[in-house]
Design goal:
There is one protein chain. By secondary structure, the chain is α+β, with helices and mostly antiparallel strands. It has 2 domains: about 260 residues, Beta-lactamase (3-Layer(aba) Sandwich); about 100 residues, Peptidoglycan synthesis regulatory factor (PBP3), Domain 2. It contains 9 helices and 18 strands. The strands form 5 sheets. It has a 6-stranded mixed beta sheet, with no helix packed on it. Strands 3-2-10-9-8 form a 5-stranded antiparallel beta sheet, sandwiched between helices. β17 and β18 form a beta hairpin. The two termini are about 40 Å apart.
């Protein structure tokens, strides 16, 4: 799946072109987290990663997939927030974090979502799973199938809660993919992740996401913890129109999780920025033409080209236009005829197609002969 292959291209369908590169500082900051992944949602640029493709126990962070399944049903209209689902004895008895549903009652989808997102309720997840798929096992199979459709090739779900299971596994990269999918695909429902508290059964519980209590632009997503996974977090923040998504896991304490999440996000916003190189319609270059009714053809990009890079790297960036010169006529407007190549120190080279902005036709035989002779004698004309 392109340069950012295993992950985000299916998720980042924005109004701008996604120019994918691995930032030069990808290894310039260390973290005590066992697994970590930080990327810019708008461009797909990886800012840092550590064991990002290692299978890990995701704990309650995998509840994001449960939530995504509900969001999809809400968006397509087969489920409504005011719909109610029955509470089984299994859901009522489930241990761990709870929203405290009562057996043989019905709970609205709206409350169940908040029970999962804000309170991390295992009982709420089971009510959702049984209500939508008949059983938690069936729902987990559906979660895995949907993950494959989203390009998450390594994630396997065995339950709706993140309850410990040796086969219930995700990677930090794919958790980030899932977060980006939720943010991009469900803007009407995503604000639930920023709610700091929720009361159900007269029990008020606060959101466990420590980033929400900082003045840092954070608005989601989910924490997790089991003995095997350690303390983890999927977080996202937006500043000045730029959004980052962070995944960390394997930390030793709640305090360490909060501190490290804040530190890595601050680093990502401080050290990097997004730069617009060209917009559609901008003339990037005028390419020379062979045997055409015009000597040159203007080149532009189909969509806006944004690149994330460190402020220091920007000073050494090199931008080139590459094509086989001259380009033979005829040329049809909109046809890719060249490449925009962006070289950033210690980063992957970025290549973007350039298209012709005009139709270039071939003149008659006499005109072609005249042009050919002029080119052979005098070389390419100077524009």
């Amino acid at each position: 799946m392109s340069k950012y292959a295993r992950s985000l291209s299916v998720l980042l369908s924005c109004m701008i072109v996604v120019v994918v590169a691995t930032a030069q500082q990808a290894a310039a900051i260390d973290t005590p987290a066992r697994e970590a992944f930080l990327f810019d949602v708008d461009t797909g640029t990886v800012l840092m990663e550590k064991n990002a493709d290692e299978l890990m126990a995701p704990a309650s962070m995998s509840k994001l997939m449960t939530v995504a399944m509900v969001f999809e049903r809400l968006k397509e209209g087969s489920l409504k927030m005011e719909d109610t689902l029955p509470v089984s004895e299994k859901a009522w008895k489930k241990g761990g974090s709870k929203m405290f549903v009562r057996v043989d009652t019905r709970v609205s989808v709206s409350d169940l979502l908040r029970g999962i997102i804000v309170q991390s309720g295992n009982d709420a997840c089971i009510v959702i799973a049984e209500g939508l798929s008949g059983s938690e096992e069936n729902f987990a199979d559906a979660m895995t199938a949907r993950a494959r459709e989203l390009g998450m090739e390594q994630s396997t779900f065995k339950n709706a809660t993140g309850w410990p299971d040796p086969e219930h596994r995700m990677t930090a990269r794919e958790l980030a993919m899932l977060a980006a999918h939720i943010i991009e695909s469900f803007p009407d429902y995503y604000p639930i992740f920023s709610e700091k508290e929720f009361t159900f059964s007269d029990i008020k519980q606060g959101n466990r996401n420590p980033l929400l209590y900082k003045n840092n632009g954070a608005d989601g997503l989910k924490t997790g913890h089991t003995e095997e996974s350690g303390y983890g977090l999927v977080g996202s923040a937006e500043r000045n129109g730029r959004r980052l998504v962070l995944v960390i896991n394997g930390l030793e304490s709640v305090k360490a999780r909060g501190r490290e999440a804040e530190r890595l996000l601050e680093w990502g916003f401080r050290e990097f920025d997004n730069y617009t190189l060209f917009k559609p319609g901008d003339v990037v270059d005028n390419a020379r033409v062979w045997l055409g009714n015009e000597d040159t053809v203007p080149l532009t990009v189909e969509e806006e080209v944004d690149i994330t890079m460190s402020r220091q790297a920007r000073k050494s960036m090199v931008v080139k236009v590459v094509y086989n010169e001259p380009i033979p006529a005829p040329i049809i407007a909109g046809t890719p005829v060249a490449q925009l190549v962006v070289e950033i120190p210690e980063s992957e080279t970025v290549s973007v197609p350039l298209i012709a902005t005009e139709d270039i036709t071939r003149p008659g035989l006499f005109g072609r002969l005249t042009s050919a002779v002029e080119y052979l004698i005098f070389g390419p004309s100077v524009q």
